[in-house]
Design goal:
seven-stranded parallel β-sheet, mainly beta, about 200 residues, nine-stranded mixed β-sheet, about 35% strand, UDP N-Acetylglucosamine Acyltransferase, domain 1
Length: about 200
Amino acid sequence: MARGIHPSASIHPTAVVDEPVSIGARTRIWHFCHVMSGAEIGDDCSLGQNCFVASTAIIGHRVKIQNNVSVYDGVVLEDEVFCGPSLVFTNVNNPRSAVSRKTEYQQTLVGHGATLGANATITPGASLGEHCFVAAGAVVCQDVRAYELVAGVPAVHKGWMSRHGNRLEFDASGFAICPGTGERYRLTEDGVVPLQSD
C-alpha cells in the first residue's frame, strides 16, 4: 500500500491523523477519529464517528467501520469487511494495568467480505474467514470459518451465509442457492464452498 494520504480522501476537521500514514483514495474519516502514525487504510473506506486506528493496524479496501470502533495493534481487516457500531477488538488475553504486555499482542485476521455485528467482541488471536457473519452482541472466542454464521456468548455455529448476506439452506445433497443472487454453494466436511456459474 502506498504511503501518504490520497488527495481524494476526506478527513473531517475534528479527526486527528498522525502522519506518516497510508490513507487510500476516496476514503472518508469522520468526526473525532484518531489514526495513529503507521496505520494503513485502503481505498473507498468509511470510518464513522469516534473510531481509532492503531499504528500497526491494516485496513483493506472498501471497509466500512461504524461509530465507536477501535482497530487495535495486530488487527488486520481484509477488503470489504463490515464492522458494526461499537464492535470491540482485543489483543491481549490477560491484561493487567500494572503489567506491560505489549510484546504479547496477538493478531486478529478478519477475512474478505466478513460482517461483524454491532456490539460484538472479538477476542485476541481469532481468525475470521471470508464472508463469515458474526451476529450482534456475539463474543467470538475461537476461529470462525468462511461463510459461517455465529451468534451468542460465547459465539457458536448457527448456520451459513452467502456472499450476498443471505442465510443458506442446504438440501439433502448438500447444495444451497442464495435467494438474493442465485449463486450456488456446496456444504463439505470442511465448510461451505461457492460453486462457479455455468
